[in-house]
Design brief:
- Its EC number is 5.1.1.1.
- It is an enzyme of class 5 (isomerase).
- The chain folds into three domains: 44 residues, lambda repressor-like DNA-binding domains (434 Repressor (Amino-terminal Domain), Orthogonal Bundle), CATH 1.10.260; 126 residues, Response regulator (Rossmann fold); 141 residues, Rossmann fold.
- The protein is built from twelve helices and twelve strands.
- The chain is elongated.
Length: 344
């Protein structure tokens, strides 16, 4: 059966939603006849209060919910360190959930956190999330939400991201200037914000240096590198092209390490046969063989700024007249995995 809402009752009885809400709470402000009308209709239609809506009262729990794809990813662990460093000092507890890049888990995590009466949410979208209604409904009910790293385009709130376009452009430009001409891009699902931004930077660098964009050199991994078989299939497709790439720019930690693992098993020499640059925050990049050229994101600072914006929304909602999207600079660190050819 379809769940009936306060709005449905109000429409059916030609009353305002606030009147219906107060009648259901047995408020003294509503006359007995109206209360009786509302209560009888609600009972007849099997109305049950929404537990999420009930949790969105004015009382504060001094806790913040955080939903990220995975803690094991070094970028996200740095993000959490930044969040906790600020939240703790401001008197807030942090409750962390992992979506494991599952839309269903993301929704379940969201509902649970809200049912536990968190004051707000910090969210980095799962790779399989294309429907944002679970966040939109909560924001309409007044729950503060701030997105970071993987952010939606069509929800208006504070967002904190890395400058993915510039980071990607600089990585691709570096490979070009190192003598590479057939540069592939291994990336996440196309509908993620980080994917479209990094792809745009990659394409712009190719364009600026007169290298035609070839769609066959771009491979999208639905699970963003978490599934080994998916990584291998994408890399195999690249290597089996009539003109295989002489460089690969990867868009995440998992994709980078997965790519290097395949090269090692196949005996492909880096950078002699294929150069590689990763968009990654792994702490052991310089210890890999060869040491990995990386685009680093300011993950800790992103977490700090995101939680500051969220707490501002929680504590001063009436003062929010505009929302910010903060884009933090990335840094390209060049190591042995991407050098070795004559610079053009």
């Amino acid at each position: 059966m379809e769940t009936i809402t306060i709005k449905d009752i109000a429409k059916a009885l030609n009353l305002s939603t606030s009147t219906v809400s107060r009648a259901l709470r047995n408020s003294y402000e509503i006359n007995p006849e109206t209360k009786k009308l509302v209560m009888e209709y609600a009972e007849r239609m099997n109305y049950r209060p929404n537990p999420i809506a009930l949790s969105l009262k004015d009382s504060k729990s001094k806790s913040i919910g955080v939903i990220i794809p995975e803690i094991a990813n070094h970028f996200f662990s740095q993000l959490i360190n930044g969040i906790e460093s600020i939240a703790y000092n401001l008197g807030y507890h942090v409750v962390i959930f992992q979506s494991h890049d599952s839309y269903e888990r993301e929704v379940a995590n969201t509902n649970y956190l809200v049912s536990r009466r968190v004051d707000g949410l910090l969210v980095s979208l799962a790779s399989l999330t294309t429907n944002l209604v679970h966040f939109q409904e909560l924001m309409e009910k007044g729950l503060p939400i701030v997105f970071l790293d993987r952010v939606p385009n069509d929800i208006e709130t504070h967002k904190v991201v890395a400058d993915n376009f510039t980071g990607s452009y600089e990585a691709t430009e570096h490979l070009i200037l190192s003598g590479r001409k057939r540069i592939a891009h291994l990336t996440s699902p196309i509908y993620l914000s980080i994917t479209t931004e990094r792809l745009a930077g990659y394409k712009k660098a190719l364009e600026d240096y007169g290298i035609p964009f070839d769609e066959s050199y771009v491979k999208y991994c639905l699970y963003g590198g978490k599934i080994e078989a998916e990584n291998e299939a994408a890399i195999e497709e690249m290597l089996n092209l009539p003109e295989p790439p002489d460089a690969i720019f990867t868009a995440s930690d998992r994709l980078t390490t997965g790519c290097m693992s395949v090269f090692q098993r196949k005996g492909i020499r880096v950078p002699e046969e294929i150069a590689i640059v990763g968009f990654t925050n792994i702490s052991v990049a310089e210890l890999l063989n060869p040491p990995l050229t990386t685009v680093m994101q300011p993950a800790m600072e992103m977490g700090q700024q995101a939680v500051e914006l969220l707490i501002r929304l929680i504590e001063h909602p009436q003062k929010t007249d505009r929302f910010e999207t903060r884009s933090l600079k990335t840094a390209l660190t060049i190591r042995a995995s991407s050098v070795g050819k004559t610079v053009v």
